[in-house]
Amino acid sequence: MRADTYEIHFPMLVDRAFEILSGFRNTRTYNCIKIKNLQTSIKINLAILSEHIKSKMNTNSYTGYMQRNPQLALTKIMEEYWELVAASENNKIYECSDLFVHILMYLNRISLSIEDILNELNKRRWTLKTLIQRNDLYDENQKEILIGITNSKYFDKTDKFAEDDLGIKIIRYSNRNLLVKGEIVNQEKFSKYFPYDKYIKLLLLPCKPKDMIWLLASKRLTHIITYDTIIENYPKISTLIHQIIDPTICIALISRQEDIIEPNKWTNTNKPLIASEYICQVTKYFQDNSINPDQYYLDKITRSSEAFLINTNKYLLADAVVQTGKTIQENNLRIWNIIISKGQIHIGLYEYFN
Predict the structure, then answer these.
(1) CA 84 to each of CA 233, 283, 339, 350: distance values in angstroms, whole numbers, following the listed order
(2) Is residue 27 part of a domain?
(3) Is the pTM of this model over 0.85?
(4) Are residues 113 and 173 in the same domain?
(5) Total domains present in the chain
(6) Mind listing the pLDDT tens digit for each residue in 193-251?
(7) What percent of the residues of the chain are helix, what percent strand, and what percent coil, each to the nearest 5?
(8) 235 lies in which domain range?
């Protein structure tokens, strides 16, 4: 929590100045925020809370700064989203509150009120059924199996898994030819995991593992082949159909050779920066080792996390998938601790959650 904010039941973030200027203090209630002083008590609904935050628009405060810079508020919403994804059950209320209050800041800046949002949601009530019926109709008429596969690192593992376990031979072309084809080479294996219909087309779509989740959630894809370490870093929208162990890789926290890592000396005023592709696994590792989330910063990144240790001293640690360890050795890095050991990571076939 920043220095100019104050926790108020939910806990909700509001300006510390509110408490100082008004003399109000917070008390617990179970269905709203309740603020009271010795003379009176008031209950604040969302619209009033939003208006209070809006009143700080031109002040020299965190909420004022965010509201005057809506793109920063949007960026902060993205950061809060990942913190919520990685949060433990005990911390979800805090992360939800942080996310919610930054959304309010953004809405204030673009002149959308809570009433505007409620009117829009009320309008959608009467069209929701039609939209669901259309989606169902689309699914019924779908005559394709469209599988998302990786086109980058470890694509050879995807191809081997597809052929050995699913009966699908993945045919890739060289140079700049982006066409990828799937050939059913073992009907018995294929039929274990996919519906058999001679009229259904089998199509493959190469994409980044980090893009697969939303493509599956929006039903652009019917299936994906990826690692469980990817799946676990996103909201659960998929169902596992089949998986095998990949015994060759692990996930580790990496540091520079010369750096001394002492988590017992981390504090909320002395937080190290950690570059993380696998924020859920890193968060759980720290939680299991009694390292408080208030004592470190996790920056969500998408790849090449080792570079954050090599090209800047801002970061103390970075997580990475380790297979041979060559990249680590050649860049004067070291494994500080293993988060997920070899033999505990799986590659699998997933479909949309039903």
Answers:
(1) 11, 11, 20, 23
(2) no
(3) no
(4) no
(5) 3
(6) 998 777 789 999 999 888 899 899 888 999 999 999 999 998 888 999 999 999 999 99
(7) 40, 25, 35
(8) 137-242
